[in-house]
Amino acid sequence: MASSFPYKLYLVISEEACLHDHFLKVAEQAVKGGVDVVQLREKNASTEEFLRKAFWLKEVLDRYEVPLIINDNLDVARQVEASGVHVGTSDIPPSQIRENWRDVACLGYSIEDLNQMESSETKTADYLGISPVFKTDTKTDTIIEWGLSGVRKIRSMTDKPLVAIGNMNAENAAEVIKAGADCIAVVSAICASQDPAKAAEQLRNEIEKS
Ligand code: TZP
Ligand code: MG
User: Fold this and answer.
1) Ligand 1 atom with least separation from CA of 192
2) Complex-level ipTM
């Protein structure tokens, strides 16, 4: 599909999710393994800390020409000149992000309820997160578990790029792509791995062959 979101393997990273190495090292290894877009998601950091981490991460990703997306913080995103912002249903609405950042390159919005598919907020997003595809211990305040049927349903309702997130791994990536997702997003499959580069490579292989 032609889109402004040509990415296939999306790393959603936070410092605390990285169990075996510093998060900047994990991000770099993941990119070497095949991650082509990275989101910094720091739910517990102060703005100052978030900003500092974002600057560091941006510096690493720029070396590989991999875009950085910031979770739910417009100020941090703009200050580090990120490629975009990702928001969920309880965050700043996408329309407001666009009003305040006219040339935002990449605006992501999580779909947690089928009713959202009719909303103008969904129409304004550049890509949609299917959240979560499968239940996950990484984010427990979720409403639905979309499963493969949910991915197919959302696919039938939009041409927008779809990013699948929630307990995604090398075992289930191919079937989720076949169900209609364009991109696979992971936290723990890479951040909790002893070998983030290899984990990314395995995921990338599954995506490419499906
Ligand atoms: N949004 C929906 S599920 C999720 C987010 C941020 C967490 C995904 O983490 P994991 O470890 O890949 O299941
Ligand atoms: Mg949120």
Assistant:
1) 11
2) 0.96
